[in-house]
Amino acid sequence: MNIWSKKVLLITFGVLLCGVPQAICATSPLEQVKVTVVQVVEVLRHGELQGEARRKALSKLLRSRFDFVIMSQRTLGQHWKKATEQEQEEFVRLYSDLLEASYIGRIEAYTDETIDYNSEKLDGDRAVVATVLHSGSTEIPIDYRMVKKGDDWFVYDVVVEDISLIKNYRNSYGEIVRKEGYAGLFELMREKITELNEQPAGAGGKT
Amino acid sequence: MTVISRITLLLAVFLVVGVSSPWAGEMEDDTVVASATDQTEIDWTELDEDDHELEVWDPLEPFNRGVFWFNDKLYFYLLKPVAKGYRYVAPEPARESVGNFFHNLATPVRFLNCLLQGKAHDAASELALFMINTTFGIAGLFDLTPDDMVKPDAEDFGQTLGRYGMSSGFYLVLPVFGPSNARDAVGRVADSLVDPVTSPFYLKMEPLEVAGIQAYDTVNRVSLDKDTYESIKRDELDPYLFVRNAFMQNRAAKVEK
User: Fold this and answer.
1) Contacts of A2 in chain B (CB under 8 A)
2) Interface membership of B1 toward A (CB under 8 Å)
3) Is A163 on the interface with B (CB under 8 A)?
4) Which residues of B233-251 are buried (b: 16+ CB within 10 A; e: fewer)?
């Protein structure tokens, strides 16, 4: 190895080790969840953004970490395959709006909660990140199920106290589709989204 | 420049670009979402093998929905207002102590079910916590569980039956007590024989006393809860279906543990 290659190697490692340490860490699923949560909290607590602009910022953060297409496919299960392309697209659109609205509603109501990032279990391109939310004297375990795409990890299910959100919706949405078809389901979803957006989060009386 | 150094330089460029891309991904979400939809080799509509589907059997749905509606009214028109007033007069630490007291009082139920499930270690933990909290914790008002100690999961007879292979049976919404199922309803009756408040074998309280104590326990719980039911009602398309599935998933997981 000549002096040139040594120099280049040194610079490379130098850049890697000192220059972008957060970027290196951010490739692990746990760190990526953490980064998103920190950014969300940042927007909520310290940002100057208000109202619509704040919602947009939160929405952007969520959509870069959650894979709503996979979530939609998993939620509809067999119904997804039978749906037309328009129905699929419409479902993904409404479903992401709905999940986003209720998720933002919940995190906006948080005040003194803290989160422990306990562990990450990797299995090929899948991972489970285990966290615990501390709220007063109660502890709520929240697991994020993630899938790797490129360098990024995307959440495709959230498991709160052993209750998988997707499995729950798979059950209830499935039942609604069976009984009322997509027209009925979309109608219900649209109503809910309007309702959630009109009613400011945390307005339901706090502890 | 030699070949090696050129390769190294190339590698360096790749590494730096490759490593910094996650950052770029967080900023430009549109591109990420677009690439996310490209990968369709996996059939995401199927759950994983170890993640079996949970089918809820609910032959009594019309009846259950009626009771669910009743409990909903009971919650909003009676329980919640009382809990709010109570929350106003009693500071949170006091209410937490009341919660600790009731939790400690119900130790016999958890202890016995640990034993029935062969969980000797958990049974020992329950017993040790009971002795420490009843004495040094002043009748259980203070929870002296050490920080580094993992509290045993709360066992009940429904879980014990589940552990020995009994399936949960049909879904059942009980008036006042809320979501349950055939197996857990039976478990509830069995546990009430052991629970000091309800047991007909010792303490032997009057029905009115029992009702009063249970009502207070419930009001105290609601006062400490952060609007769980409200947010379910707010967020879900059909709260009945959401609660039904969440309850059954949670119980299935508890039986496994």
Assistant:
1) 2, 4-5
2) yes
3) yes
4) bbbbbebbbbbbbbbbbeb
Interface list for B 132-191 with A (CB within 8 A): none
pLDDT in the model for residue B88: 95
Q: Do B11 and A36 touch (CB under 8 A)?
A: no
Say what the pTM is.
Answer: 0.80
Question: Residue A167 and residue B20: Cβ atoms within 8 Å?
Answer: no
Q: Are B246 and B253 in contact (CB under 8 A)?
A: no
Spatial contact of A128 and A121, defined as CB atoms under 8 Å apart:
yes
Q: Is B93 on the interface with A (CB under 8 A)?
A: no
Looking from the CA of B145 toward its CB, the CA atoms found within 13 Å total 16
Q: What is the mean pLDDT of each run of 10 residues along chain B (257 residues)?
A: 49 41 39 46 75 83 97 96 96 94 96 96 95 94 89 94 95 95 96 94 91 94 90 92 94 92
- Phi and psi of B63, rounded to 5°? -65, -50
Chain A residues with CB under 8 Å of B231 CB are 102, 105-106, 109, 204
DSSP category for residue A204: S
